[in-house]
Amino acid sequence: MTALEDLRALLAGPVEEVAPRLLGCRVEHAGVTVRLTEVEAYGAGGDPGSHAHRGHTRRNGTMFGPPGRLYCYLSYGVHVCANVVTGPDGSASAVLLRAGEVVAGEGTATERRRGARHRDLARGPARLCQALGLGLDHDGADLVGCAGPRLRVGPAPSAVRSGPRVGLTAAPDRPWRFWEDGAPTVSPYRRSPRAAAPDSRPSGGGC
DNA sequence: CGACGGATGGGCT
DNA sequence: GCCCATCCGTCGG
How far is Cα A168 from Cα A174, in angstroms, rounded to an integer? Predict the structure, then answer.
């Protein structure tokens, strides 16, 4: 099987199964390569935390398209973040590229990130895009194609952990964040201050 | 290292 | 208007 077929097969399943398998994969663009260490899964209708939850809009159109495309959006008016679209066409699911380690092009990445330390170059979704030189103009780019940003399969990490997604007000407890255990480039977890209180009820005897 | 608050402007009700 | 899938500086331990 070719690497390209590997990648298409990798992106085809349910988003919460695809997301952890993207850990260890590489994203390359404009002279910089990042090895993914932290991602988050976002579904569609059944996921209140997803941009696609309330249907098709101008911003989230790419999510409703074919898998293997890059969905870029503007966060807090200033920061660009990027996702990989997954699943069958129209399923509107995607995996947020939350953090990674710069493994090539460190000089270029450091310039784009205004002298940040190695660990912080791509530690956070907007930082990762900045290090890679990704902007809104890359929304819809085909990651499986020959030009522009590319995604390549890489060795899976030895241990993966999961927990709630960062910063959400809706579905703040769904454990759809996945990261490489022990990786220093994983971003710190922060719960949205506006999210409902954590569901701390022991649901049947946990200690 | 963890916690907190302000900046910021497009997207959507 | 209100809402944010964030970042960065600045606290305190």
Answer: 10
What are the pLDDT digits (tens) for A134-153? 999 999 999 998 889 999 99
Cβ of A193 near strand C (under 7 Å)? The reply is no
Q: Give chain A's length.
A: 207
Mapped onto helix, strand or coil, the DSSP state of residue A67 is: coil
pTM across the whole model? 0.95
Q: Which two tokens stand for residue A141?
A: 């780019």
Contact status, residue A35 vs residue A52, Cβ threshold 8 Å: no
Check if the beta carbon of residue A135 is closer than 8 Å to that of residue A73: no
Give the Cα-Cα-Cα angle A147, A95, A171 (nearest 5 degrees). Answer: 155
Report if CB A91 to strand C is under 7 Å: no
Residue with smallest Cα–C1' gap to B12: A57
Q: For residue A47, give every residue at least 6 positions away whose Cβ sits within 8 Å of its Cβ, in sequence order, or none.
A: A53, A171, A174
Instruction: Give the C-alpha separation, A126 to A105, whole Å.
Output: 18
Q: What are phi and psi of A88, to 5 degrees?
A: -70, 160
Helix (H, G, I), strand (E, B) or coil at A138: helix
User: In chain A, where do the E strands start and end?
Assistant: 26-29, 32-42, 70-75, 79-86, 93-104, 150-152, 160-163, 177-180
